[in-house]
């Protein structure tokens, strides 16, 4: 896919020789290969302004994968997924659902931070369909290596990347939907959504519902 196509979401064509990066030519067999090669990714334009690529993190033997949207400001600076405010909230909710982040593989649908600069601040911008599609190349490889029993889709972008179709997150949340290649996908909201709810009572209820969704993981994994 050309950078322009990724930007606009236009139809794709097989990459030309010039567009083919090292990652296309080298064999990718481990998550370490992904970490090593994704730094040179030019599948879309997002690498141009991001500090670094942020690939997934966690055990190669994890049975559970969590997929978010894209790295945020802190993740971009630290090079690790879910380490900013949304990540801290995710960690607390996982704990409350009696899940251990160390036993999960945590990643994003898109591996570079997309933002708009406003003065000194970098404001998150949602990746477009072409960028999600371009980065699915990496997500597919992460999941092929990991072969998780269950993947949790955190929000609409992750759902779209994992299932290849739009799904009403609020309607389908808490449900396990079948994805390609036998993937089992638990749909839920993104933790950033919880942070944006202004009313404290509503935020607390939304947080409890999120933890309820996460608790369903035990049933699927048989713990
Ligand atoms: N939001 C995401 O979707 N992923 C991160 O890694 C951080 C914030």
Automatic annotation (TrEMBL):
Keywords assigned: 4Fe-4S, DNA damage, DNA repair, Hydrolase, Iron, Iron-sulfur, Metal-binding
Domain of life (superkingdom): Bacteria
CDD domains: UDG-F4_TTUDGA_SPO1dp_like
Residues covered by region (Disordered): 1-24
Limits of the Uracil-DNA glycosylase-like domain: 55-215
Keyword DNA damage: yes
InterPro entries linked to this entry: UDG_Type-4/5, Ura-DNA_glyco_family4, Uracil-DNA_glycosylase-like, Uracil-DNA_glycosylase-like_sf
Pfam families: UDG
Family listed: Belongs to the uracil-DNA glycosylase (UDG) superfamily. Type 4 (UDGa) family.
Protein name per UniProt: Type-4 uracil-DNA glycosylase
Lineage: Bacteria, Pseudomonadati, Pseudomonadota, Alphaproteobacteria, Hyphomicrobiales
């Amino acid at each position: 896919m050309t950078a322009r196509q990724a930007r606009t979401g236009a139809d794709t064509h097989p990459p030309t020789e010039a567009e083919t990066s090292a990652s296309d030519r080298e064999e990718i067999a481990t998550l370490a290969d992904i970490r090593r090669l994704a730094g040179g990714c030019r599948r879309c334009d997002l690498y141009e302004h991001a500090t670094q690529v942020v690939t997934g993190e966690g055990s190669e033997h994890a049975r559970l994968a969590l997929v978010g949207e894209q790295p945020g400001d802190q993740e971009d600076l630290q090079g690790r997924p879910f380490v900013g405010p949304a990540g801290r909230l995710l960690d607390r909710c996982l704990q409350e659902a009696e899940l251990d982040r160390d036993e999960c593989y945590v990643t994003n649908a898109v591996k570079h931070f997309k933002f708009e600069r406003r003065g000194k601040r970098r404001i998150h911008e949602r990746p477009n369909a072409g960028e999600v599609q371009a980065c699915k190349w990496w997500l597919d490889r992460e999941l092929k290596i990991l072969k998780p029993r269950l993947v949790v889709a955190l929000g609409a972008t992750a759902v779209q990347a994992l299932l290849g179709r739009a799904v009403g997150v609020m309607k389908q949340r808490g449900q396990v939907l079948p994805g390609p290649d036998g993937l089992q996908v638990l749909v839920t909201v993104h933790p950033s959504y919880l942070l944006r709810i202004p009313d404290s009572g509503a935020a607390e209820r939304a947080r409890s519902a999120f933890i309820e969704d996460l608790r369903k993981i035990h049933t699927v994994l048989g713990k």
